Automatic annotation (TrEMBL):
GO terms for cellular component: cytoplasm. It comes from Xenopus tropicalis (Western clawed frog). Residues 136-260 form the Phosphoribosyltransferase domain. SUPFAM superfamilies: PRTase-like (SSF53271). Its EC number is 2.4.2.7. The keyword Glycosyltransferase applies. The gene is XB5852426 [provisional:aprt]. Keywords: Cytoplasm, Glycosyltransferase, Purine salvage, Transferase. InterPro entries: Adenine_PRTase, PRTase-like, PRTase_dom. The keyword Cytoplasm applies. This is adenine phosphoribosyltransferase. It is an enzyme of class 2 (transferase). It catalyses: AMP + diphosphate = 5-phospho-alpha-D-ribose 1-diphosphate + adenine. One of its GO terms (biological process) is purine ribonucleoside salvage.
Amino acid sequence: MPATPGSWNLSSSCPSFFGKSTTCGVEFVPPIIVQDRFSLRLGYLYRRAVGKQLASGDFIWVFCVNSAAVIMPGHDSIVAHFDIRKSPEKRDPGWYLALMAPNEKGSDYAWLDPSRLYCNQQALQDCIEDLLLPFTDDHIDLVAGIDAMGFILGAAIAAHLGKGFLAIRKAGHLCVKTRSTNYADYSGKEKVMEVRTDVIKTGLRILLVDQWIETGGTMKAAIKLVEEQGGIVAGVATICIEDSEGGKWVKKHYKCSDCVPEYLRSHFNNHVLENVQLYYNQQNSCE
């Protein structure tokens, strides 16, 4: 975040309309767009993600890479800062999605970084609980996380369930006997995935966890490794399953869980949340 208020780029072309109270009980106030447009487009959807209203009257939320701020209409200065690690008093469904960080390094990287939400303890806990809701009454023997970010979310889910955790790794890291398979990741790069052969037994029910499913290639490879050893895929849990050909295949053939509200799914599929009035329109539809 800029060190001084004057470093904010408040151009006249930035949207500055205001919302109104609805029967949904939520007042929407779209943000001024400055600097990090992606974080803003996510941030305005869940304005309670990092704080609450500090003063009466209208205000504009401004989200940036490391934190957020509030700018009062008629003022050119930042009047409040919020720590990304703080949680709101009222946690709306999926509020933690606003904590994800944008890609700042170009096309060689994923289009966003969901892992920033893990830095907020409450966000991580709420994310885990949301992902596990569909599996409340299901029998799960083991949780398997996919290299690399699936390790974090998968291990957290395993600890929450009181189950063991199995790492499904990129090839070349395990010093024990493994089973491997080729796959193409979200970027189209050909890779090899492997898993140890001394854990998965016939009939073992395994919850597969990854951070994100974009093309579905990585998850399909993990499924293959489990099923080739007689294991049963009890389900797939991930923050988002995009509606790619591979993503649709996974959802068609396995019980799945993700955190994205349906009215936002098309925007995640497009990798850009362009419509700055999306949440405003969503709230108006509740009237």
